[in-house]
Each structure stands twice: as C-alpha cells, then as structure tokens.
Description:
Elements: H1 6-14, E1 22-30, H2 37-43, E2 53-62, H3 73-78, E3 87-95, E4 100-108, E5 114-118, E6 132-136, H4 143-152, E7 158-163, E8 182-183, E9 189-195, H5 197-204, E10 209-210, E11 215-220, H6 221-227, H7 237-240, E12 243-249, H8 257-261, E13 266-267
Parallel strand pairs: 1-2, 5-6, 6-7, 7-9, 8-10, 9-11, 11-12, 12-13
Antiparallel strand pairs: 2-4, 3-4
Amino acid sequence: MITDNYDRLILPLLQRMSKLEQLHLCLFIGSRPFIDGDNLKLNILSHMPLLTKLTFHICTLTRFYNQINCPSNQTIQQTFQDFKNQNIICSTDYMKQTGYSQCRIYTHPYRLQYYDDITNQFSGGLFLSVRKVSLVDEHPFEHEFFLRIAQSFPLMEELIVKNKKPQQRKRFQVSTNNNKIIIYSNLVFLNLLYAHKDYYEQFVFDTKTCLPNKINISVDYRLMRKITRNFRRRLTQNNSAKMSWIYFSNKSQFPEHLHQYFPRAQIC
C-alpha cells in the first residue's frame, strides 16, 4: 500500500539498523519528491556501514511536480552513478489530466511477482518473476506496446488494462510488428473494465491476439456487444470460445444466443 510516512516513520526505522548487511526495500511512497539515488545514499546507506547487498523497488507517486519541472529518466538515472556493479532501472511519468507524477526505481533482475501501473515509457526487459501486471496511461497503447508486454512478462497470469484513449494506428501498418499476432500463453485473468473499446478489439480479434484456453475476463457488456456485433461476429468467435468465465458489467439479463457464442463460459 502507498504510504505518506517515508520521512517520518520509515527512514528513522532504517537509520537505526547500523549493523544491517543485506537490505531489500519494496516501497510505494506518496506526497513527497521522487526518491532517487541521492536520497538513498544520504538517508539510508550512510547509516549502514556494514551493508554489502542492496536491492529495491521504490515507486513514488506525487503531485509535487508539474509538467515543466518533473525530473526526466536521465536526471534520476544520473543520481545512481555511484552505485557500482548494479543494474538500476529508472522510469518517470507525468500524467497531465490528473496532475500526478510517478517515478519507479528498481534493481534488476526484478524480484516481485507484480508490476503495476506500466505506461508507454516502459522500456521492456525480461521479468520472469512477475505474474500480475497492470497497464495505465493517458496516451494510447498501440499493438507494438502489447507485443512488448507479452515478451517481457512471459509467465504473466493476470492483466489489467486501464486506458480510455483510442488507438491511433490500428488501421495502418506502421511496422513489421503491427500485424504480428500476440500470444499470451499463461494468461488466466483479463480485466478490461477500465479500457476503451479499441482494447477489446486488441484482445478479442483473432487477427491481433491469441488468447489461451480457459481464460477468465471482466468486460463492459455494451462494449463487448459492440465489437462482437451483438455476439455474432466471426472475427471474435475464436477467442470468445476459449473463455471459461465472463463477468459483464452494466448487464444483468442476457440473450439466449449469448451462451452459444461463449459455449464454455460461465456468464455472470
């Protein structure tokens, strides 16, 4: 959970651990400037002279900055130049509509089983420990982005997509990857309740995505009906037939032919 007590409670606790030899930090921090390498050196490492191993995943979410003064990835990365023999990844984002800025810093290889609030700034990599992923942005997610997500998280079991912006390049072939069908081999849960209609097409069109068998999904009934053309469209039938459980929001009673379109699914 996010905490506003990093300076008041967490730092005083860590600063009393002067004999600590190994430390792994996983923190989600709010209401303060970004945590960077300078902060870690001054407020934590200088109090731990015996520390030999440090790994961390720290995400700062704040309204402290605006679009002009929000530090860039490069600025944050420079604060870690004294961290020798460590691969440290930095990612910063500014959300204009909400006024929030986010900074994520972590040592690689990544150790957590979840990776939340991924934006278009995500640079890729291989994250074999991650099982749960959430995507959120004020800019569209294009097909190439979802391909990068599938390649970076091959063991992903749960995916949440939060994006209300329509895709801009879905009708045009802009790269060699634009027509590549994406395979999510281990996906079990897919949540599109907070997604634009284009992302329903992204996952249900069999020309874009190959979903695994027995997948569970949560969707808006009205959007699903629209992209399946009242649950009769052939282009969406292959992936729909693989669904074993479907939660529809904004609907409580269903037409009879709905069960024929989702022959394996429990519908609620």
